[in-house]
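Justification of computing resources. Each target in the renewal requires a structure prediction run like the one illustrated here; the chain below, 100 residues long, is used simply to show the kind of job we budget for.
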Amino acid sequence: MESNLENKAIIRGGVYYFQAGDAKALIQMCKDNNYKILGIDSVIITEKKTQPVLEHSIDYSDQVKRGNWDEAIAFIQSKANLNYMFEVVYDKKDESLEMN
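Resulting structure tokens:
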């Protein structure tokens, strides 16, 4: 699904990192397709490094039955003013599914 937003992502090591608004759009795509959110990793990206910010990341893998879409969007909104990039980790059971 990230391919729909690929032009808005910074891709490092095959991982897609998004600004807050695009991360929320990806979460909405996941919700529309019933892909459960497993977690969100916040990172600082510069020319030379990708630095995880663990205290501003969250793991939903123990709550996966709920989907966690609303919680994930609220989490991103709460961090938006920090200028982080976000990796949205979701259940990719059917990676061939694409948004129209």
